[in-house]
Amino acid sequence: MVTEQDVQHIAELADVGIGAGELENFTHQFNAILEYFDILDRVEGQGEGARDHYNVLREDEVEPSLPQEEVLRNAPAQEDGFIKAPRVM
């Protein structure tokens, strides 16, 4: 649980001024946020392999690319068989 002294210390570390009226509000908000994290910790920990399905990605596969003529046909500008882009520097 976060106390008002903890919030005051965090504010001093961040060089942020907090008034006495705001201190109680921020303390409540910090505790509410930490309660959400506690709920997530309990939910994520349920069941064997609960985290095994995060970011399941497909395998990379080599596929044929478009023919050069088709790519250049879609380009706004071209020069010597290459896509011409605006100068960056």
UniProtKB/TrEMBL annotation:
It catalyses: L-glutamyl-tRNA(Gln) + L-glutamine + ATP + H2O = L-glutaminyl-tRNA(Gln) + L-glutamate + ADP + phosphate + H(+); L-aspartyl-tRNA(Asn) + L-glutamine + ATP + H2O = L-asparaginyl-tRNA(Asn) + L-glutamate + ADP + phosphate + 2 H(+). Pfam families: GatC. Its EC number is 6.3.5.-. It is an enzyme of class 6 (ligase). InterPro entries: Asp/Glu-ADT_sf_sub_c, GatC. Signal peptide: none annotated. One of its GO terms (biological process) is translation. The keyword ATP-binding applies. Keywords: ATP-binding, Ligase, Nucleotide-binding, Protein biosynthesis, Transferase. Belongs to the GatC family. Heterotrimer of A, B and C subunits. This is Aspartyl/glutamyl-tRNA(Asn/Gln) amidotransferase subunit C. It comes from Methanoregula formicica (strain DSM 22288 / NBRC 105244 / SMSP).
